[in-house]
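Sample A.
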Amino acid sequence: MSSRCPDLPFLPGYTFNPNIGRTKFNMDPKFDFIGKGNMALVDKVKPNMFGPLSDKYPSIYPRGESIEIPGWIAFDKQILCFDGFFQETLQELRGSPFQIRKVKIYFFLEDGTIQVVEPRVENSGVAQGTLISRQRIRFPPPMDDNFYDFTDFNIGREVELYGRVFKITNCDKFTRTFMNRCGIAIGDAIVAPPDPYMEIRSHQMDAMQPKKPNRTADTLGKFLQNDKKVLHFKGYWDDKDTEYGYVHHLGIRYYLADDTIEIKELQVQSSDEPGFIFLRRGKLPQVYKELPSPGDDSHNTVLNVLGSALSSRRYLIDPLDCGRHKVCYYTEKDLSIGAILNCYGRKIVLTDCDSFTRGYYAEKYGISEFTPLEIPDIIKKAEDIPPPKHRELPPWNGFGTHEDSAQNCITVEPKAPHKDFKKFLAYDRVGLDSHILRFEARMKSKIPENCSRIFIIRYYLSDDTMAIFEVAKRNSGFATSNFLARGKIILPEQKVFTSKPPLCYTPQHMFIGATLIINGFEFILLDADEYALRYMELNAGQFPKANIKIIMDKVKEKLRPIYKDFVAENLPNESPVISYERLRAKLCELMGQDFTEHEMVTISRAFSAVCYKDKYNRDKIRALALTELKRFLWDDLDRLKEYFLQRDPPRSGKLSKKDCYTIMKACRLPFDKELIERILQVVKKDEQCNLYYEDLLQFLDRTNCPMPDVPPVNVKYDLWWGSDKDPVPGSLIDWCAFNRYLDLESTFKEAVGEDTVNNIEKSVSS
């Protein structure tokens, strides 16, 4: 298409020849070469940002240099923005003949359209928004054949759009730059004249008093800035002047988000753990006289109550708040070490603060001294605190338990008695640790048939309850069943109908040889299971019958004057061990009634001479493992060694048991879990129980010290840790260890001679 002037007719002589000034008449190829041999599609169009000007003003370009793309592409999303105003006449408002309305004029370069928008003003009283929608606008008559273009807009000019005259006062930065590049000078911004209508209205608004003033303060900014920021102080309140009063240790918290204060009482033993709430969180007034009367804290004051009937009354809210008293509350400026707070008539002295509070005051107020106050002597006296009072309850009437009756006496509403939850958590079952002590017992009765009955007594440490289960013999006439349900057992010979609950059996009453009277039946404890004995020995501080130190001290005191005769009489002839029955008989004769069967069991377990030999040693385990490897045709020892080296980068030669187990399972060794566990038990270890994997590789190498095949065995049962029953410890007692613990070796040598002692020790070591 040839460039021409749109105002001239399309006739010969009025157009320009597009070939004038052209030197190349070939067709432009769609593809060109980028580099050597790289064909690519290239754009031959020369962009020109002033394209639409050539349609109307072609003379500003040289001939043959007009653009080749349409304006809606070259000027896409490019808008000229002008600020202006127009004057609107007012007939009904006195003192204001007109009003000034400010507008925004947008000129869209892509198609020459114009849009006029009036910004919305709150509570303006007129309809605002888009005054003229986007469209091309003609000049006013008699020039209505042409349309407005961007050259018709400039600061200081007046344009008439559909009968309204708009005066342009300013433009944005893009508009100024664009028109300057087009050669159009843009003047300075013009100040719009004041609006007399808005001035009159502003004076009227200032003179008017709202009927319902806004009494709420916007504290959202303060909340967002100081959320989760709390100032911590320590203080005390001296209440010793009152009857039964004492000094209260308090923790004061000031919340910066809403200027509220919370006070909690601290425990006397540890002054950092909070106790019950002394003052709930809220604003604390500085001056307190009395409780506010009804209506003092209301937000509004009602005036001019007219009319007698309820339906015809009229109310008016007082905007001046006549008679309202301003309450001053404590703020962060009033808090400091040594300050005294008036907490509703109670004087609270602040003595110390935390590190955050010190940093906050140092940064905001420049305070550098935070010396804690010394606590007065009256606070340090523990005897000033009165002992807690115990409530006297009526005696038990026999209905329900003592705890239920006491709880019903305390509260009118029936509630379940409180249980010792901390003790329950401490002694609840955890894995194999059941915290249940089991004892074997027999009944002591005048009836011969009852004396042969066997019972299992269980003591539950979690709540100090007991249960009895009878294990009946065959053809005894008794059935195997529960003899007594689980519950607390009261000690005999106590007054039951009293206000205080009776004493019950405790774990210290449970030991071998003890006699228990339960509901009129007398039981003698004959034995205990391994868990009960082991638990008592581990907690020897709570069970003196299982404390070997206390027992041996008692034996030492009895043996000190007659130690020579005791050793001479009980010296073993050939072996350095003594039987349980022999030592028990001598100790019972020596100690008398002060010696119990449980103490003897503790001695026998502490100095047991029973040896335990494992059924499968290292050689048998290796023979069994090599047989399994041969049976399943496994021969991948090099890969196993490679895995060990990969897991051990520092080449220390040691790995943990878990890593070795993982590698053996990854290499798919044809071993059961029990066999792998036994192999890892017999492999050489260091002080930290890490395994030497070189020893494990030699253990699995069939070429290294080959061993004969063994017949197949049931690995899952024979190698299980519970398959071999351990011998009962204590049937034989190590006589040398027993005397060595008594620490009377010099007396022992004098009695039997040093050579005899050396011979006994040699035999023990062999």
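Sample B, a different protein:
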Amino acid sequence: MEIKAGLSALVTGGASGIGKGLALALAEKGVFITIVDFSEERGREVATLVEKINSKFHSKLEHPSAIFVKCDVSNSKSPTGDLAAAFEKHLLTYGGLDICINSAGIGNPIPFNKDQTDGTRSWRYTVDVNFTAVIDCTRLAIKTMEAAKRPGAIINLGSASGLYPMYADPIYSGSKGGVVMFSRSLRLYKRQGIRVNVLCPEFVETEMGLKVDSKLIGLMGGFVPMEMVVKGAFELITDESKAGHCLWITNRRGMEYWPTPSEEAKYLTRSARFRRRSEFKAPSVKLPESFEKIVVQTLTHNFRNATSIVRTPLRLPVKPNHILVKILYAGVNASDVNFSSGRYFGGNNSDTASRLPFDAGFESVGIIAAVGDSVTDLKIGMPCALMNFGSYAEFVMVPSKHALPVPRPDPEVVAMLTSGLTASISLEKAGQMESGKVVLVTAAAGGTGQFAVQLAKLAGNTVVATCGGAAKAKLLKELGVDRVIDYHSEDVKTVLRKEFPKGVDIIYESVGGDMFNLCLNALAVHGRLIVIGMISQYQGENGWTPLKYPGLCEKLLAKSQTVAGFFLVQYGHLWQEHLDRLFNLYSMGKLKVVVDPKKFIGLHSVADAVEHLHSGKSVGKVVVGVDPAFLPQVAKL
């Protein structure tokens, strides 16, 4: 939602503190405001300020640009003002409700265990104002937005004390914790166009914040500036992808979303939407006497010259503890040329040559066509993914333990395999990614880069990405990248030096060569550079020639930096966990999966697909549809 003149907002607790700050910030955008507060004097004062600011945007109006409603939000039928009537008055005045900010909140004046007032005006009143009123105001805001048949954004003010314990005021901490979980549990209202989020700043210099021990404020890095709170609230309002999100704001760590995706994945179960998509009806598979596959016949980085299509008998019955998979889609990877040159087998060329011919391809999705004895957990017709040598084939027989069950055998799932898993696992393990960092992704519009930028953004980081070309830059902006550097029109080194003078905290690097050098020099103190590949060095007349990096140790030592290599094969024990996590994010609409639009159908097109990937023209994951007879029958995700 764009915050612009003519929208309307209702702000509870708008007469002081954060509520006042947000009301005035919205007024600076020309938004009409209803101030709801218990203090009439201060409330009318803020409404007057809003009208004065709004006069810059609105010269002649049939209604006031700001109104004040006196109300005790803790009591929806209070003698001092009816909460429901406040929402009704707003609707009648402005014809709808676009933004609701529930900011009213108080501290607990008396320790709850020493409360002699039966809780009516101390701890119980604190809970009523901080939590019960938020529930009531959210209910009324949703009802008002539904009545106007317009989308809307609701921001509930939680607190950092709702994320971790505040020992000095457990009632305040508990009530704000309730606001956090209540707000996060309303994610599904996004289907109606209504987004509920929660903002959790640490101490802000308000009337309530000034009552906190100054020593504690100092330990926490000082008061969070109001400008930072406004920036966070505006992000939650404007970002359409944010629904049920909690934004934590501190001076120490900046703005970050809580919990991180890795923490969230510990308790998330597959949603009903996920289960519905798992109800895949497999087409019948007739087992032929023979099938085609691609094999490497000679060792060279030129994939087309290295490989050929051969026909081989389909050996039945399936071996015990094995399954036979009908391949529907296979993924193309930059390292296909390294595989065809024998680099994945180690040793010298003569040792590798003795293995010829060997099957090509790393990843695929398909359906189980037959199972061997002792296979009990997998059934014929089940969709599954494979990450093993030999995926450029119509059929493949593998040990059943290597199968990765998936909801559907679709191109998007192929993209989640080598490309998605590399991004997900490497950022977590090699990058040790946190929130509030600057993350740089090179070759970001490619198969794995698209995942890296989104996962880094979901974790609450500032994301920078490099790419070549306007089309790729446009895609990355749509994926939420904060700063896209198109090296066709900008100098990457100049941009990083000018806009990120303190350096980059985490770098996801797949290009190698000069780009690696550039990234290393741009790495911040304590920074981590993840090497997931070096595509610029894979091809050439002499193949992959390792480069020398003089002074590397000295650079790393001077700034306590880390360069971490990542090879997906060595993390097989995490594949299923992270694949489920990626699909869950995708099924909830949090993750987009981009498949290159160029169609490659049949095994004869694999060499074209590999060359397309290395041409630098591909956008997203390059996928080959192995059997054209099956493709029209497979519904897209």
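Observation for Sample B: The chain is about 30% helix and 20% strand.
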